Amino acid sequence: MDPCPFVRVTVGNLALKIPVASKPARSVVHPSSSPCFCKIKLNILNLPPQNAVVPCLPPDTQTLDNPATAATFHLSKSDLDRLASKSIFASRLCLKISIYTGRRGTTCGVNSGRLLGRVSVPLDLAGTESKPSVFHNGWVSVGKGPNKGGSAAQTQFHLNVKAEPDPRFVFQFDGEPECSPQVFQIRGNIRQPVFTCKFSFRTSADRTQRSRSLQSEQGSSRSWLSSFGSERERPGKERKGWSITVHDLSGSPVAAASMVTPFVASPGSDRVSRSNPGSWLILRPGDNTWKPWGRLEAWRERGGADGLGYRFELIPDTSGAGIVLAESTISLNKGGKFVLDLGSGSSNRLGPISPGCSPRGSGDFGYGLWPYCMYRGFVMSAKVEGEGRCSKPAVEVSVQHVNCTEDAAAFVALAAAVDLSMDACRLFSQRLRKELCQQSDLVG
C-alpha cells in the first residue's frame, strides 16, 4: 500500500511576557490575574481556526520550558497542489495569531477577550512533503509600542511554528457500512479495493451460531462475547446486535466491530443519554481468536444543537483499565470528523497516553501503558455525514501506525462503528432504514 503525502503544521511553545507597569492602571494587564489566550488560523486555506491558552511568564524569565503543542493543521496533497498552482497564493500563505487577555467566550455576540496584539508568520510549504521546516522559533514583540501604564517595554510573545511530513493511508467506503460495502484505498486518482465489509445482526437467538462461526473462521474454541460486553435484554426502546466484519481480499476476517451494549432510550425520553451509552468492541484477530483492541461508547448530547458524544479507549491485554484516547462530539446535523490525535491542540479531551508514553514519565501512569507507546501524534480520522445523509466514511491513518493489514482494518472497523453510532443514537421516534432493522422490527 502506498501512502498519500500530507503535511502537518504545528504551533507550540507559546508564552507571554507582559511588562509590569510602573503606575497602576485599570487597562494594564496583570499576568498573575489575567488569563490569556490566542486564536490561530491559516489565512487562505478553508480550515477552522483553533484556540489555545497562553501562559504568562515573569518579565525577567530567560528560559522557556513549555514544549506543548497548541494547534495543529493538516494539509492534504490537494491543499498543497492548490497553493503551488497559484504563485500569488503560495507567497501570501501565512499563519495569523491574535492574542487576547481575558476568558474565552462571547457575550451577546461580542468577544469577551481584549486584544493584546497580532502575529503573522509567513509559510513556504514547498518541499515539506519530504523534509521538515521550522518557520519561527523565539520571541516577537506584540502590541503598539509602550504600555499606557508607563512601562517602555513591549509585550513579548514566544512561539514555535514548523511543518513536517505526515504521510497517511486514505480509505473510502464505497457505500454505507450497513450495506456491506467495499473499502477502497485512495491515492490521487487511483482507487484500489483493499477490504470488504459484512454487516449483520447478532441476537440472543443466533448468539451461539455467531460465536461458533467466528471460532470456525479463526480456529479457536474461545468466544469473545462470553468475556466482553453486555447483552442486556431490556423492554422498551433499544437498538442492539449490530456487527460489522472487515475482510481482506482473500476473504479472511481481519477486524470487526460488534455492538456489545445496546443503545437504549433513557426512561421517559426518546434518546440515548450520556449516563447510559451504547458501546462497541473493536476486535482484531490474534492467537487464533478474536481479541478486543478498543471500546467505543456513544450517546446523544443535549443542547442547542444535538451532537453525537463519543469516548474511545484502548483495551489492555492485561486486566487493567482502558486507556482513553479521545472524548468529544460530532454534529448530528452536519456530521464531522472522529479524530485520534495524541499531541495536537484539537478539541479531543485526551487521557494520559501522551505523557505516559514519554521516557521520562512512563512510570507515572503504571506499566500497563507501555504497549501503547506506539500511538503518538496523529493516529487516524474518520469523516462521517450527519443524520439522514448518505454516508461513505473517509478514513485517514498515519503511516507510522500501520505495520500490517490488520492494523489498517482495525481503524476501518472503528470508522464503521462511529458511522453506525450516528444511526444508533437517532431519536427513537424516527424510523431507521430497513438495512438497520431486523425482521421483527419491520413486522412490528
Automatic annotation (TrEMBL):
InterPro entries found in the cross-reference section = DUF1005
Sequence ranges of Basic and acidic residues compositional bias: 230-241
| Disordered: region residues | 208-243
Q: Where does the chain cross the membrane?
A: none
Q: Where is the composition biased (Low complexity)?
A: 220-229
- PANTHER family the record matches: OS07G0133500 PROTEIN, OS08G0163500 PROTEIN
Indicate what this protein is called per its UniProt record: Formin-like protein 18
Organism field = Malus domestica
